[in-house]
Amino acid sequence: MCWIFAYKWDKEASPFLLEWLKNLEYRGYDSAGICEINKAGEFYIEKAVWKVSNLATKVENSDKELEWYNTWIAHTRWATHGKVTMENTHPHYSKNERFFIVHNGIIENYIELKKELEDRGYTFYGETDTEIVAKLIEDMFETDIETTIKKVFRRITWAYALGVIDRQEPDTLIWVKIWSPLVLGLAEWEYFLSSDANALARFAKTYINLDDWEMVVIKGNTHKIISLDSGLSLDKQIEDITYSEDNYALWDFSHFMEKEIFQVPEIIDNFIKWRIDFETLEIKSNTLEELAAKDFKRIEIIASWTSYNAGMTASYLFEELASIPTTVYVSTEFKYKKKFINTDTLYIFISQSGETADSLESLKVVKNKWGFTFWIVNVVGSSIARLSDLGLYTHSGREVWVAATKSFIGQIWVLLIMALYLGNKKDLEYTKYKEILACMQKLKDNVSLVLLESQKIQKVAKKYAHYKDMFFLWRNIQYPMAMEWSLKCKEITYNHTEAYSAGELKHGPLSLIEPSFPTLLINPEGRFTDKNVSTLKEIKARDGLVIWLITKWDKNKDLYDDVIEIPHTIEELSIFPVSVALQLFAYYAARELDREIDKPRNLAKSVTVE
Ligand code: F6R
Question: Relative to the CA of 303, which ligand 1 atom is closest?
Fold first, then answer.
């Protein structure tokens, strides 16, 4: 699914470019490949299945002098069309081995194009849609590569970013962007193209965000960006890239997931400094002021999994604190359901990456019908942020590897702030507002205490990692927490976990309870404690094992099998310590099973295909 490219002029290229490719591996790690050409049109292509380090080993052992090559395309793959094989690994090439391409996205009409090409005598070495484009370029070639690509793009339907090199024009590099993300990084005498700006941070100082239906042509050391609609050259805004070495270092942690969970107190601290004045009890945000003035009567939230779970949490917050009825949709479903877009409704799109294709497409549908769109995004300058009407960043820092942790905390924090702000402008009781803000001031310490007790959580996780099935249960605002941590455990332990509202257990899932099927019951102090004790008893009556996630005051110690304790805070804020405790639980369970935690099988961080 994902790729990068680097173009250099008159300088050594390869060693650091492989390093760079590793930075993009989070976008897909099924296989990786590079193709480099020099000014004489000689080429070197190398591919490897699975990790970029496998590719790096092959490159290191090759007798090619890599510094010699100036133009470079590379790709890390998340398989869509065809298995994870060498044949299907990018870059792909034409029959005459003149054109090499890498591609992120899906060519929807590839079967039709393949048939046409087969009728004209072409054969195919692999199963990918990308190889078909390489052969189509050869088939449609006319005059030069720029003219040819302008014709070819009209034949291939839609949703891709595509990079092409032509050995007959070795100083030219062409990219086309339609829906899949693409940025152009600029440095002295160098150009970089990449699926996102994050991966450019070490190498380029500035970048240009490319929009749909745009083409980049780099010739020698000049570049132009052309509109594919009008054919005109465009003058695009150049933005700065911020780079911090800390984002790339693992410090003393074993995995990036662990590091990112341990960054949560710092993130909470930053949020508090930026947004809340505890003297005046004011939330400071011009964006929220503008939003409140619009007085929306309903909210619809659209997002994909972890971000959807943050949206589900927000639906409780918006309804309880701001009295605004809220509905939440997974973007894959929202996109295709009948829409009743109206001006009284606020449409919120939540996304860590800001590039998730399903959410982006849903956003475009709402915008086309004149709905007011609001983004909550982590990656600065990403497509969802650029396309929506208004929004807030979650400022959770760079989150690279697959499991979303600190960004989820950032999302629920921003959503809580929004609900409080809008509630305060409406009918939220001032005493409640003040109580929540006062407790928010202590939240950093509260979450830090959970991290301090991480060894206790590790002990419980080690035991339960060996059960193949598990339920996560809770009621009300903690229900999305159960959904989120069931998802996290699935992703990185490969165990089967399911989340239910605790009250629903007796309506069916209870039949699965037996000693080999444990339940994690989330029960911080609050309105639902007694009801959860009833659920606990129902499970114990059927010999089920129970981990009880509680605040320290609990008095049911003899009822459950194991316990995870969290410090007390008010109900609305307990989602924060609960989240961190369960993130640690999932992390330690996966570690016990010796899983590849930062790169779980079959997944990629940023899902830019539908
Ligand atoms: C799970 C996870 C995914 C993402 C989902 C949406 O740990 O990270 O479920 O939440 O792919 O991604 P974003 O938030 O980037 O839109």
Answer: 16
Ligand 1 cavity residues, CB under 6 Å: 304-307, 351-353, 356, 359, 403-404, 491, 606-607
For the CA of 308, the closest atom of ligand 1 is 10
Whether residues 433 and 499 share a domain: the answer is no
Q: Which of 3-17, 109-123, 357-371, 562-576 is the least confident region? A: 3-17
Does residue 22 register a pLDDT over 80?
no
The pLDDT value recorded for residue 210 is 94
Query: Are both 533 and 594 inside the same structural domain?
Result: yes
pLDDT 10s digits, 191-246? 888 887 777 777 888 999 999 999 999 998 889 999 999 999 999 999 998 777 77
211 and 303 housed in the same domain:
no
**Whether residue 559 is found in the same domain as residue 415:** no
Give 281-326 pLDDT, tens digit per residue.
Answer: 999 999 999 999 999 999 999 999 999 999 999 999 999 999 999 9
Number of separate domains in the chain: 3
Residue 160 has a pLDDT of 86
220 and 150 within one domain: yes
Final residue in a domain of this structure, among 424, 449, 474: 449
Mutational test site, ligand 1, from 331, 356, 407, 601, max ligand atoms within 8 Å of CB: 356
Whether 2 sits among the annotated catalytic residues: the reply is yes
Residue partners of 491: CB distance under 8 A and separation at least 6: 402, 403, 586, 600, 603
Give, in degrees to the nearest 5, the angle at Cα 257 between 574 and 600.
115
Identify which of 248, 249, 263, 253 has the alpha carbon closest to the alpha carbon of residue 588: 253
Q: What is the CATH number of the domain that holds 337?
A: 3.40.50.10490
Q: How far is ligand 1, taken at its centre, from the CA of residue 217, in Å?
A: 33
pLDDT at 180: 87
Our mutation pick for probing the ligand 1 site, out of 352, 405, 414, 610, counting the most ligand atoms within 8 A of Cβ, is 352
> Which of 26, 256, 305, 330 to mutate for ligand 1's pocket (most ligand atoms within 8 Å of CB)?
305
User: According to the model, what pLDDT value does residue 15 have?
Assistant: 62
Same domain, 479 and 378: no
**From the alpha carbon of 488, which atom of ligand 1 is closest?**
7
CA 521 / ligand 1 centre spacing (Å) = 24
User: Which CATH number goes with the domain that contains 234?
Assistant: 3.60.20.10
How many alpha carbons lie under 13 Å from residue 71 in its C-beta half-sphere?
27
Omega of the bond leading into 567 within 30 degrees of 0 (cis): no
Catalytic residue among 177, 444, 599, 605: 605
Compare 28 and 450 and report the one with higher pLDDT. Answer: 450
- pTM here is 0.91
DSSP SS3 for 130: helix
Instruction: Please tell me the distance between residue 429's alpha carbon and the centre of ligand 1 in angstroms.
Output: 35
Distance (Å) from CA 540 to ligand 1 centroid: 35
Same domain, 260 and 141: no
Last residue in a domain, options 431, 449, 467: 449
Same domain, 367 and 481: no
Please give the Cα distance from 589 to 493 (Å, whole number): 7
Structure tokens at 88: 């299907």
Angle at 584 between CA 581 and CA 586, to 5 degrees: 110
Residue 1's pLDDT band (boundaries 50, 70, 90)? very low
Q: Which domain holds residue 46?
A: 3-243
Rounded to an integer, what distance in angstroms lies between the CA atom of residue 289 and that of residue 424?
A: 11
- Give the C-alpha separation, 428 to 416, whole Å: 13
| 605 has catalytic annotation | yes
Mean pLDDT of all residues belonging to the chain:
91
Q: How far is the CA of 277 from the centre of ligand 1 (A)?
A: 32
pLDDT at 249: 85
Average pLDDT over residues 498-519: 94
